[in-house]
Amino acid sequence: MLFLLRCGVPDDRRLDAPIVPGERTQALDLPAIPGRKDLKFLDPLPRQFVTQDAETLEAMSKRPDVSHQDAPQPDPHVTSERVRVIVHGSDAALAAVVSKLMRIDALWVQVGYVPLHPGSSVATVWGCDATASQPQLLHTALTGDALPTPVIRDDHGLVTLGVAEVTGPQGEDGKELPMVGEVIVDSQVLYAQEVGAKKGFNNGVRMVPTPGAPGLAAVQRPPLPRRGLFGREKAPENLEPSVLRGRAMQAGGEDLRVVRDGVPHPRPLKSVTFYRHLRDGQFVRR
Prior knowledge:
Rossmann fold, six-stranded mixed sheet, single chain, about 290 residues, alpha+beta, globular, 21 strands
């Protein structure tokens, strides 16, 4: 079964559903960032296609070993046929679809991507050429191999596939303010208010998922300009940021601004945790 989800695609860029011999195909036009109601049609997939269930997430979480968090693995569910969802849209649209699949424990569904924009962060992470023509990208999403890939989620139940940023709030003039808080990757401190101040980093962190273990990498964002004498802004020094890799990233602080795949969280947060989901995704990538 093949689904082509056109998410906020302009009429002049709409792709027709491909014809695959022996495979059913369904094309749907959805909002630019589909919500839960828009994606409700995915709910029956486990009942329709899974012929042998895998170990439950609850049972996995109680296991003392963490082998399932090493190199990503093929999904253990047995299905009656291949099910592939191809998302034609933005990184945010793709993340919304994968978040839905995660919630219904259907990450066995293969996922391909046709990015609308050449600057797609997910395309960079997945090794896709977002500057290729839309038909070429569709062909790759249709025929490419689906490879096991860590899925990075957060404690709000949202998946990040391209990039997430945690920064300070915006001032009344719209300018970014320094981040007051701390960020830890696994057990190592990446960012702390007092440490960042001493080293010059004051602008939060950037997190990207990794195609393999451990699951994510995070780096300090370039420093904000500082105020010098007479209130003039001083250009930030040319500093070398730290990069940490791990399975989880925790951030806490004052009025944190969180942006996932280009979508700002609707309100400031005091804390947020990104971590590798127990099941891996099956994504068409290099």
